[in-house]
Amino acid sequence: MELGIKKKHRSNRLQTISGFLSFVIGLISLAGLNVALLMKEKVFPGMFIIQLPMLGFVLGMIGLFTRRRSRLHAVWGLSISLFLFIFTFLMIISSLGINYKP
Amino acid sequence: MKDNENEDYQQFLQESLHERDEIQPYTENAQIEIVKTGKSQARRTNIMISLAILLLIVPVMTLATYLYYSIGSRADKLIDIVTNTIYITEPNMSVRKLDLEEDIGLFSMNITFDVFKRIGKEDYKMGNYDVDFLLDQPSFPKKDLYLDRPLAENPDKESEFIFHPKANPPFSITRGMDILNKLPDGTVAEAYISLYQVMKPKDLQNILPKNIEIRWLAVDTGLEASQEDKEGYPITPIGYPPQYDPTTWSPFKTDDNEKAFMDILTELEKNESVATKVARAKSLSLSSRIAYIKKHGIHIYGAVLTGPTEELRKLQDIKEIRAVKAGEVKLWNWE
Amino acid sequence: MELDQAYRENVNDLYRYLYSLAKNHHIAEDLVQEAFYRAYVHLEDYEIYNIRAWLFKVAYHAFIDFQRKNKRLIIQDPLKENGPVEESPEKRLLEKEGFKRLLKDIDSLKEQEKHVLLLCDLHQLTYYQASEVLEMNVNTLKSHLHRGRKKVMKRVKERMRADEG
């Protein structure tokens, strides 16, 4: 008796591509930020705290609109981008509050 | 009756389940594949999440540190305490806060700045300070001073340059004029004077020769006679610059330096442990000294002066001056 | 791998459970995959005493999440959605008249009673295991089960009487 389910037209993907990409971009941005922080760079590379997180944010939003697939990756990607925005914002604010020279 | 109903239900249920269980929705291979897919994807997800958490550690700690130092201007207050302590405890020394550099690490801050002395008409860079803070606790400053005649880093009764009328000056202090006498004309110098009597800051100007600038006044705080605090730790003079200081952000960029001095003392008292680390003396005893000044008013017993060496030599003829000690010497810059 | 083996033995059961909940082959299939994925993702978070009960718990939550995500979707008629031509376990399950009727009966129950009956009767979980899956007090669970069984029995009897009459 042939009882198997044929997986036609269906990949094994559980996550959306956009969610996955968002998560990966988030990780790359975080890695870049880590390097900048550990190397004590005075000027942060904007790519890792502005451009890439923006891309990750958009992809994460797209990844949220899924009914069938897991949103886990998209949620992580979004959270990391949001963290990076908040990080950048708070760092600027607090840097102005420390030994500020006009 | 009730048992019967239950039995009926169980029988009906078993029949239905039997029907259902005849069907195997997935083949052996499909089952393996589902479990395998779930496992490998879960592993990838878990690796990514672990990576994200690891990569968040440094940014979160950095941010926490910045917030710690910026909230309530904590860093600025610490910087003020350090620089003000120098104005109060180091005679004729000033700091250019505009050039102060801070560097924030994880839960720590490092500040570096240069210190200056006015010799004659010019400010000379006399060295630099490097202070590490762990949160709000400073380490002992790493000082790099290039002074010809530095004050002792571990002060005792013998080593100070300014003495209270009731204190016994060491024998060497009486020879202070020798250096000034041997210096060639055409130089400018710094001189530490001690008085026979305490007096009001304004009265000092009147007894001095014209061509001399007062750089710092040593204030009588009740502890200078014994030169130690209640526990017997040696103390050093505290005082303030009486002249208007045009340096940006100097606490003495004001017409009322006596008030600025008192404000600084009150502020330092609140953070005495930080100030004590920066000062040379092991004890500042600020509360008792503030109380003494409030009771008796600001009276001075010594001062640091600068001017042409010829003018400074005239100090030995002034009867109110008990002792003169020479400090730094520079080439002519008076006019 | 013992865990993989234990998981594998529950694949069919989980499909049946999720099919009873979703009443759609494709959704059930996705949810089975999702449940095993989640079971592995959260593996470290829980002490697993009973793998079967654990998997049902994960599957239950996968379904609840799916339901929440699709609240605004119009629920399609499960019999029409994929067309009858395709050979699927769904089709074969629905060929079994008795089982189909039972599912229909259970589906007419209140939400809580439905979940309890599916776990305790259709999948033979113990009261304790089912209460863990549904995060429900055991006594509450028993009373839901009792009421649910009574209602199902009433419907079955009504139908039998109708058939006879």
Shape category of chain B? elongated
Indicate the percent of residues in helices of chain A.
Answer: 55-70%
SS strand fraction of chain B: 15-25%
Q: Whole-Å distance between the termini of chain A?
A: 82 Å
C-alpha-based Rg of chain B, rounded? 36 Å
The backbone outline of chain A, from C-alpha atoms, is: elongated
State the secondary-structure class of chain A: mainly alpha
Q: Write the element-wise H/E pattern of chain A from the N-terminal end onward.
A: HHH
Distance between the ends of chain B = 123 Å
Helix content of chain B: 25-40%
Task: Give the SSE map.
The complex is a heterotrimer of chains A (102), B (335) and C (165).
Chain A: H1 17-38, H2 46-64, H3 72-96
Helix pairs in contact in A: 1-2, 1-3, 2-3
Chain B: H1 2-21, H2 28-70, H3 74-89, E1 94-95, E2 101-105, E3 108-119, E4 122-134, E5 137-138, E6 142-145, H4 176-182, E7 187-199, H5 201-207, E8 213-219, E9 239-240, H6 257-270, H7 272-278, H8 286-296, E10 300-308, H9 309-313, E11 321-331
Antiparallel strand pairs in B: 1-3, 2-3, 3-4, 4-5, 4-6, 7-10, 7-11, 8-9, 8-10
Chain C: H1 2-8, H2 11-22, H3 25-41, H4 51-69, H5 89-95, H6 97-107, H7 111-122, H8 127-134, H9 138-164
Helix pairs in contact in C: 2-3, 2-4, 3-4, 4-8, 7-8, 7-9
Please give a structural write-up.
The complex is a heterotrimer of chains A (102), B (335) and C (165). Helices cover 65% and strands 0% of the residues of chain A. Chain A has 3 helices and no strands. The model of chain A is unreliable at 1-12 (pLDDT under 50). The model of chain B has no long low-confidence stretch (mean pLDDT 89). Chain B contains 9 helices and 11 strands. The longest helix of chain B has 43 residues, at 28-70. With 165 residues, chain C is mainly alpha-helical. Chain C folds into 2 domains: 1-95, Rna Polymerase Sigma Factor, Chain: A (Orthogonal Bundle), CATH 1.10.1740.10; 96-165, Orthogonal Bundle (Arc Repressor Mutant, subunit A), CATH 1.10.10. Chains in contact: A-B, A-C, B-C.
